[in-house]
């Protein structure tokens, strides 16, 4: 797959976002069946750069990922700085 698309795994995990050479690549959102969600950048199928992690009860954490592994948590202000530097634009909307 190449371009933008969505995929649902047999176990209920879902990915919606950009693909390149059949791998998650570019901006995308990955959601687990328990409601946990990662919104951020992907490179060669792995999380890379600044991203947002929502846990299953809706708490939000900002972090930096390298080669699919979170390297550190950061403050929201730092997240916006890292997103700008990396060129990622992430918009998250909440409803009451």
Helix content: 10-25%
Q: Supply Rg.
A: 13 Å
Compute the number of strand runs: 7
For the report, how would you describe the main beta sheet?
7 strands, antiparallel
**Shape assignment:** globular
Strand numbers in spatial order across the main sheet: 1-2-3-4-5-6-7
User: Oligomeric state of the chains?
Assistant: single chain
Query: What is the rounded distance between the termini?
Result: 36 Å
Overall pLDDT metric: 86
Order of helices and strands: EEEEEEEH
Percent of residues in β-strands = over 45%
Poorly predicted segments: 87-96
Instruction: Compute the number of helices.
Output: 1
- Which structural class is indicated by helix and strand composition? mainly beta
The structural domain count equals 1
General description of the model:
The structure is a single chain. The chain is mainly β and 96 residues long. The protein has one domain. It is 11% helix and 53% strand. It contains one helix and seven strands. The chain has one helix spanning 76-86, and strands spanning 3-8, 14-20, 23-31, 37-43, 46-54, 60-66, 69-74. It has a seven-stranded antiparallel beta sheet with strand order 1-2-3-4-5-6-7. β5 and β6 (60-66) form a beta hairpin. The chain is globular and about 35 Å long.
Compose a concise summary of this entry.
This protein has one helix and seven strands, in the order E-E-E-E-E-E-E-H. With 96 residues, it is mainly β. The chain has one domain.
Descriptive tags:
mainly beta; globular; disordered C terminus; 96 residues; single chain
